[in-house]
Amino acid sequence: MEIIFRSPLLWYKWVALSDRSNPLLEAHRLLRRGPISEERWSQLVAKDRDWERSYRGRWAHDKVVRSTHGVNCTGSCSWNVYVKDGLITWESQAVDYPSPGADMPDYEPRGCPRGASFSWYTYSPLRVKYPYVRGSLLEMYREARGRLGDPVEAWAEIAGDPEKTRTYKRQRGKGGFVRASWDEVVELIAAAHVDTIRRYGPDRVVGFSPIPAMSMASYAAGTRFLSLIGGTILSFYDWYADLPPASPQSFGDQTDVPESGDWWNAGYLIVWGTNLPTTRTPDAHFMTEARYRGQKVVVVSPDYAEHTKFADHWLAAEPGTDGAMAMAMGHVILKEFYVERQVPYFQDYARRFTDLPLLVTLRERDGAYVPDRLLRASDLAADGGESEHAEWKPVLLDGRTGEPAVPKGSVGHRYGEPGDWNLKLDGIEPVLTLIDRGGKAVPIDLPRFDVGESEGGDVVRRGVPTMRVGDHLVTTVLDLALANYGVGRPGLPGEWPSGYEDPRPYTPAWQESITGVKGEMVAKVAREFARNAELTEGRSMIAMGAGTNHWFHSDQVYRTFLALVQLCGCEGVNGGGWAHYVGQEKVRPLAGWQTVAFALDWTRPPRHQSGTPFFYLASGQWRYERSLASDFASPLGRGLLDGRHVADVNALGARLGWLPSFPSFDRSSLDLAAEAEGAGKEVADHVVDELRDGRLGFACEDPDAPQNHPRVMTVWRANVLGSSGKGHEFFLKHLLGVPDSAVRAEESPPELRPRDVTWRDEAPEGALDLLTTIDFRMTSNALFSDVVLPAATWYEKVDLSSTDLHPFVHTFNQAVPPPWEAKTDWDAFAKIAERFSELAERHLGVRRDVVAAPLLHDSPDEIAQPLGEVRDWKAGECEPVPGRTMPKLIVVERDYPRTAEKWKALGPLVEEQGTAVKGAKWVADEEVAELAARNGTVRGGIADGRPSLERVDHACEAILALSGTTNGRLAVEGFRSLEESTGLELADLAGSRGGDRIELADARVQPRTVITSPEWSGIEAHGRRYAPFTVNVEREKPWHTLSGRMHLYLDHAWMLELGEGLPTFRPPLRHKAIYGDDPAAEGNGHRELTLRYLTPHSKWSIHSEYQDNLHMLTLFRGGGMLWVSREDAEALEIADGDWVEAHNRNGVIACRAAVSHRIPEGVCMMYHSKDKHLNVPLTEQEGKRGGTDNSLTRIVMKPTHFIGGYAQLSFGFNYYGPTGSQRDEVTVLRKREAEVVFE
Fold first, then answer.
1. Residues forming beta bridges with residue 444, ordered by sequence position
2. Confidence band (pLDDT; 50, 70, 90) for 383?
3. Which pLDDT value is given to residue 29?
4. Ramachandran class of 997: left when φ > 0, alpha when ψ lies in -120 to 50, beta otherwise
5. Average pLDDT of 1211-1227?
6. What does each C-alpha distance from 1168 to 543, 719, 783, 1155 come to in angstroms?
7. To the nearest whole percent, how much of the chain has pLDDT over 90?
8. What pLDDT sits at residue 48?
9. How far, in Å, CA of 109 to CA of 81, rounded?
10. Residues near 1154 by Cβ (< 8 Å), separated by ≥ 6?
């Protein structure tokens, strides 16, 4: 009999049973380590437990280091990092934040599961460990470098040879990286910078890094270098579309919002477009805990998201219709709390702090009137325009005298007689309405955008009471608002709703057909919101975010929200007002950070550039427009935008000084300065003459000309191509020259092309010569780069962090040194600056550079162009005057060989020119001396005797020492400077902490509460939470606006042209009507649906955690997913997990479907920022790799966001400018039928 044994164990058992005296078994006893049982089936073995050490050692540690995450999640949480044998093993939340007091919850424990797993990334397979260069480029560089002996000439030869550049540009995104040394890679980068500056000028060198608050010194490392060489620094807040334009439009300030602890103080909270538990996880407890003290929570969201379950009421509005709901709420509040009865608190607040009493001139048109600009002091016969800045002083009606009066506080007072810039009424009694003052009631036409054949909408006729002031017929802003909202009063002409059930604008019934939310519920919420504000004197709050701010008309959406908090007296009140949260935006030590980051201690001004128009031109998206700027104009407009392409709007804004445009001119800015010197002329005069005579043009007027391309770009702390790059496929094609981009759109037909911007028949492909990414992960941006440098992560460096959500500044600290060959951002740019300076000695030397600087907010520039009129010097409508009708032309000396020396030292302008921030100013001479003692001083060279910034901790000390929020002496000095202009007592706000200093060592021990400072508008004090504009309300300090008050009405000519003088509802763009169906959707035999396409923050990983660890792969199945409603999935026979494709004219994505009941019908969502590292197959339609979430989006810019030189509508870096909105997009969805293949 043959016995077959399936395992050795069975064989041994058989031997033991069949023959206990078997020699083989007897021999085995010699190997035994202990006695066996009598039946010989078991053995007792004595063994130690050393094997458990690897398991138990994970929870032991050699040291604990306090640090944080630089992640733009707004949490800015302090963590304890545990290190064992030089390796990070785990992290836990720190729980020793300063207490907010006994009457509210503590801040800790702050953190979330995402942050608790960050240490995984330190040793991630995607960690960039060494410097990498695209192989073909490095090979060419080495050959040319060896032959020519000069790195700059070697780069110049490569960059100047179309065949050589095409070789490596076409390989972008396709691998081919080779490892190189830091020295060699840094030399290549430096050589490219030097050659680009030498040939084209410094403004062709570009850098992008976002959100400085999340790691201030790391951001500053690169921008300081760029500022010293004259490079272009791109904004991020507007590019991300996180910037709310309505904030500067209404407040003259950007994203000054309450900390999360102030949610606790709200009696009524509407959560509108921000998913607090997901995107604000460490702070959401304040919202949930406040419900136990009676707070009511209302959530407005199209889908059943995480925050919805906390709601007392869920208003499930259709995506993009939030403005309609807010208009209906405004209708209810105005009717019940301003007309049917007057609430004393609301009336007093409106008179003192809003523009509601200001007088607006009316212009006759087609048998009725339309609103025009605000009445000014220059219009009054008594003034005759003789008072200083009279054109900048709005007028109201004084109830005491019945005559027009000019209240203090306007922008005209701000730059006029010291002491008059305040909100004291000095006996004036502002009249809110003219309804019972005996004037004539006239019909008035107002725009409406919910109907009409185009984006421009239609007209509704209402009526307003008026009076005559000189030659002008006027009414008040409140009277206009009542007409606009459809709140009728006896004796007024026009069409008015008869009640809330009347479906005419803007009643609760009207909004119901648009939002899908019952009118009764909307009226109930509006009434409760206002009644709570009445009883609590303003403690009603609206938390808002990306869900409502990423739309094309986001400014109008937000203005409808902000109108509610202004009408109810909520702004500037603890527990009330707006609460906008989209990112970690608030750099608390603002003044010091700006000084270091933009090298303001050595040279001024830096080249700050709006990111959205820059990328719009550089990625060629302007060539694919299907609409003109005038398409968005109201029927009541005067044709101011007729025939203008959006690129024309940008060119006009650039030449009028409204916003920066770099590269500036079609010649090098260094050459222009040299030409002027050679001709014996002032540089500004030379530039003006060249422009006037047509020999010089703005680069943005011919963006596709080779001399106008950006040439060298460095990205650090960011992933443009994997996260924020709206129009991803256009980037690949035009900026990078990738041959297999999936752009499906056709270029604009001749009739839709620009009139002022040159159209070249051949579009550039691969405009950028060198793309460098500094990152710790191999992101999409890194994969498409030419050079990748390994960066330190957040547990491997020293830095500073702050946020909007809490009042602390705290630190990153090095738990372990950067592993492999990684370096901190500070050290990486130090090496680049050193090698750049060495190469510049021969090739650049000392040069004069002319900077075309825009007209800036919070400076006298903002009163350059009066009355909101648009006058173009190029069209002969005025003279080109630098700093008035065109950009300022400022000459800066660039000592290029001394760049590194300056980069590593604090320059003398801190004492010589002082610091200015938001109208406050100080000289930090004492602090410079202290920094010299603490950091040490430089010996020799151009920075001899100056405080050192060589190490990153030196930079952090400088940031803290030079800011009022972290240095009480400077806060007091800043407020004293404001006392001179306002005539108010302000210094006491910081007086109790005038001797306090927060130094790096302090913040390393524990997060430190910042100091009340003029850098921000709220009051920091123990026992109260930070809320914006409390200084304005409690101390009568003006807002930084035209009138010095919060604005509902905006009277710039272009705002009126678009019909947006007042808040109103504008629906999402009609993309299908504008662009037509995607060509592949017609006659292809596939069943398809056209859906609204949204790209919200990731459901499980808002910023702080990427998607390539086991936790995330488990949660979201690996790769991207498209979330679809059950109804739409059923129509296309799509089951959960099926492969689908979504496509439009911008590109194609291929992914799995996630079918969910929580997604509304007609909508699909793809969570953003998922790199294409796994599970991205070739598309069925084109056989190319599927795209990212941004492959279906493109840049769409709104004309009014270009406005500048006009009070609060003036440029500021990350303050005001065109936003990269992407929520209005639509896509065509289909089920995939072909086999899924990946190569």
1. 369, 462
2. low
3. 61
4. beta
5. 94
6. 22, 12, 18, 18
7. 83
8. 77
9. 15
10. 1117, 1121, 1122, 1123, 1124, 1136, 1137
Q: Of 37, 596, 586, 370, whose CA–CA distance to 1059 is shortest? A: 370
CB 687 within 8 A of CB 850: yes
Per-residue pLDDT tens over the stretch 716-740: 999 999 889 999 999 999 999 999 9
Return the SS3 of 772: strand
Antiparallel, parallel or unpaired: β 1147-1156 and 359-365: unpaired
75 within 8 A of 280, measured Cβ to Cβ: yes
Task: Give residue 987's pLDDT.
Answer: 98
Is residue 31 exposed (0-12), middle (13-18) or buried (19+ Cβ within 10 Å)?
exposed
Residue 413: CB partners within 8 Å, gap ≥ 6?
389, 393, 420, 421, 1038, 1044
CA distances from 580 to 164, 539, 1167, 1211 (A): 48, 16, 20, 21
For residue range 1064-1105, what is the model confidence (pLDDT) as tens digits? 999 999 876 666 555 445 556 689 999 999 988 776 665 545
pLDDT greater than 50 at residue 191: yes
Q: How far is CA 459 from the centre of its chain?
A: 34
Cα-Cα-Cα-Cα torsion 1058, 1064, 1065, 1069, nearest 10 degrees, comes to 20
Instruction: Please name every residue paired with 809 in a beta bridge, in sequence order, or none if there are none.
Output: 802, 1008
SS3 readout for 695-707: CCCEHHHCCCCHH
Confidence of residue 25 (pLDDT cuts 50, 70, 90): low
**Does the structure show a pLDDT above 90 at 10?**
no
Please tell me the total number of residues recorded for the chain in this structure: 1239
Residue 1063: asked if its preceding bond is cis (omega within 30°), the reply is no
Task: Give the CA angle between residues 929, 934, 936 to the nearest 5°.
Answer: 85
Cα 540–chain centre separation: 26
pLDDT at 1021: 85
Q: In a 3-state reduction of DSSP, which class is residue 1216?
A: strand
Distance (Å, rounded) from C-alpha 1142 to C-alpha 1086? 12
- As given in the structure block, the two tokens for residue 1186 are 């599927």
Q: What per-residue confidence (pLDDT) applies to 567? A: 98
10 Å CB burial of residue 453 (0-12, 13-18, 19+) is: exposed
Tokens representing 45 are 């073995």
pLDDT higher than 60, residue 571: yes
Has residue 155 got a pLDDT over 50? Answer: yes
Query: CA-to-CA distance for 559 and 1060, rounded, in angstroms?
Result: 10
**pLDDT at 277 exceeding the cut of 90:** no
Q: How far, CA to CA in Å, does 1088 sit from each of 291, 746, 1081?
A: 45, 22, 7
Helix (H) or strand (E) holding 163: helix 162-169
| Residue 1153 bridge partners (DSSP) | 1122
* Mean pLDDT of the 198-218 span: 97
Calpha distance 21→39 (Å, rounded): 13
Given this model, what pLDDT does residue 169 score?
A: 98
How many whole angstroms separate alpha carbon 954 and alpha carbon 999? 11
pLDDT value at residue 523: 98
Where do we find the tokens 């859906």?
1091
> Tokens 């090496």 identify what position?
831
Q: What residues have CB less than 8 Å from 575, skipping those under 6 apart?
A: 262, 264, 265, 266, 267, 536, 538, 539, 541, 1027
DSSP 947: B
- The identity of residue 750, as a single letter, is P
- Of 889, 896, 902, residue with least CA distance to 669: 889
Cβ–Cβ under 8 Å, residues 571 and 1046: yes
* Amino acid 245: pLDDT: 97
Task: Identify which of 24, 34, 548, 612 has the alpha carbon closest to the alpha carbon of residue 326.
Answer: 548
Under DSSP, the state recorded for 546 is H
